[in-house]
Specification:
The complex is a heterodimer. In chain A, 68% of the residues lie in helices and 0% in strands. In chain A, helix 1 packs across helix 2, helix 1 runs parallel beside helix 3 and helix 2 packs across helix 3. By secondary structure, chain B is mainly alpha-helical. Helices cover 69% and strands 0% of the residues of chain B. Chain B contains eight helices and no strands. In chain B, helix 1 packs antiparallel against helix 2 and helix 6 packs across helix 8. The mean pLDDT of chain B is 85. Classes of the chains: A mainly alpha, B mainly alpha. At the A-B interface, helix 1, helix 3 and helix 4 of A face helix 1, helix 2, helix 5, helix 6 and helix 8 of B.
Chain lengths: 84, 187
């Protein structure tokens, strides 16, 4: 990693930091860039916000359920299995 | 009794299982297959099911394995996006010198339940538009909360591959949300 990462490099570091612990040098480089770059700090906030939103429990009661065809097909398969 | 149990599973939990699977697999067809496999496996395992968890919890636990199995099959069948897949799209987001091509605008701070629901739908729609494998890995990480190490182990992909997929998915998801009008929402 270069001394001062570009925005593109920084998005990669920000993304990886959400999944594992960065090496010391990487973390430092990322923080330095974030400190001076408004675009990248917004990117960092927004990807964190996306994670938060994804993990809100929706109860999974919204949205379409199984189609009639699928339901029928699965019922047939279950019946076959029961009879075998 | 047995046959009654099995058809009740489908009636009582079929739609729920389908929605859970649909959100992870981003495909109606794959989600239907996962539900079918889950119920067939449950039928085989029902003698061992001690009944200490609710039926739905038990079925959902089986479903989660079936979802990972399904994604693992996808990984084997689909060429892994090493560098080629999506690279051009990433290029378009940045200038030659590595700066953002377009400024990143701030997001609003949606608090209302209705706004959150809308956002959640926008997120799901955007995730559906990612390349299938990218969407699946992204959902395992962000929605299911699996650790990358676990994802790599389960799917047999390298950590580097995983990070490349997640980095691209996050770039595209952020942009998709902005394009779908989220930018400035609730501000």
């Amino acid at each position: 990693m270069k001394w001062m990462p570009t925005c593109r490099d920084t998005t990669e570091l920000v993304s990886r930091a959400m999944d594992e612990r960065l090496a010391f040098g990487e973390r430092l480089a990322m923080r330095m860039h974030l400190a001076i770059c408004r675009n990248c700090s917004r990117f960092a906030e927004q990807v964190q916000e996306m994670r938060r939103l994804f993990r809100i429990e929706t109860g999974d009661e919204t949205g379409a359920g199984l189609s009639d065809e699928a339901r029928h097909r699965i019922e047939t398969e279950l019946q076959k299995k029961l009879e075998s | 009794m047995d046959s009654l149990d099995a058809s009740r599973w489908l009636d009582d939990h079929g739609d729920y299982l389908f929605r859970v699977a649909r959100r992870q697999l981003h495909s109606d067809e794959l989600a239907e297959d996962a539900v079918q496999e889950t119920l067939l496996a449950a039928l085989t395992a029902r003698a061992r099911y001690a009944g200490d968890a609710s039926t739905r919890t038990w079925l959902t636990a089986i479903l989660k394995h079936k979802i990972v199995d399904c994604i693992r099959r996808q990984v084997r069948e689909v060429e892994l996006p090493h560098d080629a897949d999506g690279e051009e799209d990433v290029d378009a987001l940045f200038r030659q010198d590595g700066h953002w091509a377009e400024p990143i605008r701030p997001w609003g701070n949606p608090q209302a339940e209705a706004e959150l629901g809308q956002l959640r739908r926008a997120l799901d729609d955007c995730a559906d538009r990612l390349k299938p494998l990218m969407a699946q890995v992204f959902s395992l990480r962000e929605a299911a909360g699996m650790e990358t190490e676990e994802i790599c182990k389960e799917l047999g992909i390298t950590p580097t591959n995983c990070w490349v997929l997640l980095h691209r998915a996050r770039l595209f998801m952020r942009q998709c949300l902005e394009l779908s009008g989220f930018s400035g929402a609730g501000a």
